[in-house]
UniProtKB/TrEMBL annotation, chain A:
Gene3D superfamilies per record: HUPs
Protein name (Swiss-Prot/TrEMBL): UspA domain-containing protein
InterPro entries listed in its UniProt record: Rossmann-like_a/b/a_fold, Universal_stress_UspA, UspA
SUPFAM superfamilies per UniProt: Adenine nucleotide alpha hydrolases-like
Residue ranges annotated for the UspA domain, each copy included: 66-214
Automatic annotation (TrEMBL), chain B:
The name this protein goes by in its record: UspA domain-containing protein
InterPro entries: Rossmann-like_a/b/a_fold (IPR014729), Universal_stress_UspA (IPR006015), UspA (IPR006016)
Signal peptide limits: none
Location of region: Disordered: 1-20
UniProt cross-references to Pfam families, sorted A to Z: Usp
Residue ranges, compositional bias (Low complexity): 1-16
Tree of life domain: Eukaryota
CDD domains: USP_At3g01520-like
Domain (UspA): residue spans on this chain: 30-178
Regions crossing the membrane: none
C-alpha cells in the first residue's frame, strides 16, 4: 500500500500541468483508488490500536502491583500476611481495581555467607552453604505460597539472587510495582547502623511507596 | 497539649465506633494519615485512600496534623534558625499557627470527601515525630500513612526525618508514600 501511494505520488509529481486526458484519468483513477484503501487500512489499524489501547491502558492503570519481600523471618511472614489481608485481598481476581501480588525472596549471595566464615574456606563448605541457602529459599517459597493459598489470594512467588536491598529495589522497577511491603526486624539503632537495615534502604530508595510492617511490640 | 489530644482521641473514637482494640485487623481498620502543608502529604493521603482504604469498606480514616508549638520564646523557623518571640507576640503567632492548621486540615478533609471516605481530623501540638507517635498509640491506629519528602541522605541527617523516626517507633505498620515524580506511574 505504501508502495502504491509512493508510485501514485511519483506519478502525480511527474505529470504536473500538461496532463493528457488519458493519463490524467488513469492518474486520477489511481489517485482515487489508492488513498481509499490505504486510508481504510490505516484507519482500521489505527482503530484496532485505539481499541486495544484503552483496554490495555485501563488494565495497566487499574491493576495495582504489590511486591512483598520475604526472607524467612517471622517479621516478613507477618508483612506478607498483612499485605495479603489489607492490600492484596483481591489479588488474582479479574476486573477493575485488580491487584497483582508478587512475593519476592532475595537469596543472599553464597559469597557473602561464606566470607563471614573467615579465610581459608574450602570448596566443600561453599557447596554446603549453597545447598543450605537453596533449601532455605525453597522453604520460604513454600511457606509464602501456603500463606497466599490460606488467604485465598493468588500470587507469584519469585526467588532472586543477590543482596536484598538491591534485589528489592530492582524488582520494584522491573515489575513497575506500586507498593513494596517489607517486614522490619525491629533492630535497635546500633544494630541498624552495623548490619544495615534493608527496610530503611528500601523506604528511601525504592521507586514506589513502601509499607513497613513491624512486629506489634508492647509499647515501653 | 494534653487537652487537644484527649479531645481529638475522644472525637476520633466517638466517630469511629468499630475500631477499638489495637490490632483489630479485618473489616475495621483505622488509618491515621499525618498531614502538613506540603503537597506530598496530601498526595500520600490520596494514594492511601485509593489503594488501602477503598478496598476496605470498614476502614476509618483520621487525619492528624501537628501544629507548631507557639509557647516558646525561641522557636525554629522552618527547621533552621532561631527567632526570639516577645511574650506579647506569642498570642498572634499562635493564632497564625491555628489558622494554618485549619487550612491544612480542611484541605485534607476535602481530599477525603472527594474520595468519598469519611474521615475525622485531629490536631496535636509538640515535636512532630513524637506527637504523631503518641497519636498513633492513643488512637490504636492500624496503619500510619506518611508522605516522603524525598530528602537526600544529608538533608535527612541534618533536618531529621520524621518518617525515619516513625518507621522505627510507631506502634503500627507505616506506609511511606513517594511523591508521584519519584514513583513510576500514577
Amino acid at each position: 500500500m505504501m508502495a502504491e501511494t509512493k508510485a501514485v505520488a511519483a506519478a502525480v509529481e511527474a505529470s504536473p500541468v500538461e496532463v493528457e486526458e488519458g493519463r490524467s484519468k488513469t492518474v486520477a483513477a489511481a489517485v482515487e483508488a489508492s488513498p481509499a484503501p490505504v486510508e481504510k487500512g490505516r484507519s482500521k489499524t489505527a482503530a484496532a490500536e485505539v481499541e486495544a489501547g484503552p483496554a490495555e491502558v485501563e488494565e495497566g492503570r487499574s491493576k495495582t502491583v504489590v511486591l512483598v519481600a520475604v526472607d524467612d523471618s517471622d517479621a516478613s511472614y507477618r508483612a506478607l500476611e498483612w499485605a495479603v489481608r489489607h492490600v492484596a485481598a483481591t489479588a488474582g481476581m479479574a476486573g477493575a481495581g485488580a491487584v497483582e501480588l508478587v512475593v519476592l525472596h532475595a537469596k543472599p549471595p553464597t559469597s557473602l555467607a561464606v566470607n563471614m566464615g573467615g579465610p581459608g574456606v574450602s570448596g566443600d563448605v561453599v557447596r554446603l552453604v549453597e545447598a543450605d541457602l537453596r533449601k532455605k529459599a525453597e522453604g520460604v517459597v513454600d511457606k509464602a505460597r501456603r500463606l497466599c493459598v490460606a488467604n485465598s489470594v493468588q500470587g507469584v512467588v519469585e526467588v532472586v539472587d543477590g543482596e536484598p536491598r538491591h534485589v528489592l529495589c530492582n524488582a520494584v522497577d522491573k515489575h513497575h510495582a506500586d507498593l513494596l511491603v517489607v517486614g522490619s526486624h525491629g533492630y535497635g539503632a546500633i544494630k541498624r547502623a552495623l548490619l544495615g537495615s534493608v527496610s530503611d534502604y528500601c523506604a528511601h530508595h525504592a521507586h514506589c511507596s513502601v509499607m513497613i510492617v513491624k512486629q506489634p511490640k508492647s509499647k515501653n | 497539649m494534653e487537652e487537644v489530644s484527649a479531645e481529638a482521641a475522644a472525637m476520633a473514637s466517638g466517630m469511629a465506633p468499630g475500631a477499638g482494640a489495637g490490632g483489630a485487623e479485618g473489616a475495621t481498620m483505622k488509618v491515621v494519615a499525618a498531614v502538613d502543608a506540603s503537597e506530598e502529604s496530601l498526595h500520600a493521603l490520596s494514594w492511601a485512600l485509593d489503594n488501602v482504604v477503598r478496598p476496605h469498606p470498614g476502614a476509618s480514616v483520621v487525619v492528624v496534623h501537628v501544629q507548631h508549638h507557639a509557647d516558646h520564646f525561641a522557636y525554629p523557623v522552618a527547621g533552621h534558625g532561631l527567632q526570639y518571640v516577645p511574650p506579647t507576640a506569642v498570642d498572634s503567632v499562635r493564632k497564625t499557627h491555628e489558622e494554618n492548621s485549619r487550612r491544612v486540615v480542611s484541605a485534607a478533609l476535602d481530599v477525603c470527601r472527594q474520595k468519598q471516605a469519611s474521615a475525622t481530623a485531629a490536631v496535636v501540638e509538640g515535636d512532630a515525630k513524637e506527637a504523631i507517635c503518641r497519636a498513633v498509640e492513643d488512637m490504636h491506629a492500624d496503619l500510619l500513612v506518611l508522605g516522603s519528602r524525598g530528602l537526600g541522605m544529608i538533608k535527612r541527617a541534618l533536618l531529621g526525618s520524621v518518617s525515619d523516626y516513625l518507621v522505627h517507633h510507631a506502634s503500627c505498620p507505616v506506609l511511606i508514600v513517594k511523591p508521584p515524580n519519584k514513583a513510576h506511574h500514577k
